[in-house]
């Protein structure tokens, strides 16, 4: 099962900052996402209007979620499929295992699916003698390394080319010593060669779903490699894993969200493959599964409905928030300690595993607001992280030092005269201690700051309020 290590975020982050290989990978990879998204958005004049449309579609769906889920399930069954309603991760794992056992499966191919990571499907299948094989290129190398994804659309975001080569030579013991991996296509060719027989031999294929369409009972996946298509058309049985908020009302609604998804995620107008699956293979179809199962997973989502965190259920998993996050860009995804990293994970993880286990995550933010500004469905992520900080404080989960300092600040904040006096005295004391230097390398009671960076000394002119009032007087002259 997935081990939640969010409580170790500070230790994880410190290790990540010292990891030269990780820092190299982050430095090379993160810029490309930002540049491609910016170019794709600039080329679509109606992008901001489309964001409003996407937000409204998701809000409408969430407000009528029971209706659309029931409509979706009825249309899946009308197309010959089966829907398995699962309240918890354990229910979902049991449903998947039961389907695989009834199919006599020994090998299962998988497309990339974050919900499968959330519920721990791979470990569960392996524990019961069934071998899952990840077919997404990034997921494949992650599986070989016995790691979890560090990014929700680029699982191997944290790896460099030499890491791929080293792992292939370790795992593929028959690999010729003179085989070279100088180019990306060399890596792709090696993985493709190994996976071809896996595709053909698999009894069951498991995919996630970017969207579920109530109108038709269809599931939709987007990929750039085509592995998802092979995963869901070659085996006799296709299992779709999806959380309940993935449903949308109509095909038109889905296409509106698809226009947002690829542009926000990878800077493409559309992903290379956008595949709609509806039920079992019909007599006139050339390929497709004999059985089509949808495992619909709640796992805490319904508890978010009607709360301050319902807006998080609008998320379409594009990863734009983490691509633009300065914290994620510095420490990578594994530091977050569970399936969902970055700003979206800082909101979703405490919801799913508890703020007592993941309280560090909503605090791991500069609140620069970039995540909200790029979110394709306008989720107010800083506001939601602030709500988690409030919950943490209310439950006395935050450190006593933080609580005491906040209480002290609140006492002064409610007494403006005392606040102004204290800040004036503080500025004078710091100015005297700095002795004209630009910054402090050490200061009592500020070790948490000065341990990793200098503390700027006050500039001449007094407090902010004093300088502001002086400028206002000058402006009125």
Automatic annotation (TrEMBL):
Segments forming domain 4Fe-4S ferredoxin-type: 305-336
One protein family per Pfam: LUD_dom
Matches recorded under SUPFAM superfamilies: alpha-helical ferredoxin, NagB/RpiA/CoA transferase-like
GO MF terms, alphabetically ordered: 4 iron, 4 sulfur cluster binding; metal ion binding
Alphabetically ordered keywords of this record: 4Fe-4S, Electron transport, Iron, Iron-sulfur, Metal-binding, Repeat, Transport
GO biological process: lactate metabolic process
NCBIfam families: LutB/LldF family L-lactate oxidation iron-sulfur protein (TIGR00273)
Entry protein name: L-lactate dehydrogenase complex protein LldF
Species name: Falsiroseomonas stagni DSM 19981
